[in-house]
Automatic annotation (TrEMBL):
<dbReference type="GO" id="GO:0030313">
    <property type="term" value="C:cell envelope"/>
</dbReference>
<dbReference type="InterPro" id="IPR050553">
    <property type="entry name" value="Thioredoxin_ResA/DsbE_sf"/>
</dbReference>
<dbReference type="GO" id="GO:0016491">
    <property type="term" value="F:oxidoreductase activity"/>
</dbReference>
<keyword id="KW-0735">Signal-anchor</keyword>
<keyword id="KW-1015">Disulfide bond</keyword>
<dbReference type="InterPro" id="IPR013766">
    <property type="entry name" value="Thioredoxin_domain"/>
</dbReference>
<dbReference type="InterPro" id="IPR017937">
    <property type="entry name" value="Thioredoxin_CS"/>
</dbReference>
<dbReference type="GO" id="GO:0017004">
    <property type="term" value="P:cytochrome complex assembly"/>
</dbReference>
<dbReference type="InterPro" id="IPR036249">
    <property type="entry name" value="Thioredoxin-like_sf"/>
</dbReference>
<keyword id="KW-0676">Redox-active center</keyword>
<dbReference type="InterPro" id="IPR006311">
    <property type="entry name" value="TAT_signal"/>
</dbReference>
<protein>
    <submittedName>
        <fullName>Membrane protein</fullName>
    </submittedName>
</protein>
<dbReference type="InterPro" id="IPR013740">
    <property type="entry name" value="Redoxin"/>
</dbReference>
<keyword id="KW-0201">Cytochrome c-type biogenesis</keyword>
<dbReference type="Pfam" id="PF08534">
    <property type="entry name" value="Redoxin"/>
</dbReference>
<feature type="compositionally biased region" description="Basic and acidic residues">
    <location>
        <begin position="44"/>
        <end position="61"/>
    </location>
</feature>
<keyword id="KW-0812">Transmembrane</keyword>
Amino acid sequence: MTTSTRWTLLVLAVAAAIVTALALSLGHTPPGTGSAPGAQAARTHREADTPEALAEPRQRADLPPCPAVADNPGPQELRGIVVECAADGADVDVARALAGRPVVVNLWAYWCGPCAEELPAMADYQRRVGPDVTVVTVHQDENETAALLRLAELGVRLPTLQDGQRRIAAALNVPNVMPATVVLRADGSVAKILPQAFTSADEIAAAVKNAVQ
């Protein structure tokens, strides 16, 4: 074997190793990046988050059920998206669950500092506004256990969808920042996308009012 042949084989081996490493890295989505818009979600949470593993975190979080599915087909952008309800692991048809009522959709992740400050304000806003508006949070990381424990720690009890592949945000064209909030009208149309953090229920109430006017 000549020296040039050896060098050629070495270069090919290194190139193959690089391609393999890239493929493996692309198969994992680091916290905070979310999935690319249009990507097909294989799962909404980690393989480690089995029903057995989630039982205690769910009990600690004590979340309310996700909104009941309505006969209305719901927002067109969200049709066909099914994710998990963090409260009990049930599948949720997102479009139909958010249909027929004004909804404030809050997008967050367990590791997001501003999200942890904002979530109690969202809960306070829900208490103030009552049944006129429904606040639904969407956890955008595959670590569902960490999400439940963070909600338990914060004492926030809001309906929560587990969307580790960021399908809801991608469908609504929400910028890949957290926290972010989407205000939906009762007819399912998007009134406003708010890629910002709120610090009080008053701020949220004012933003929602301005969005639907």
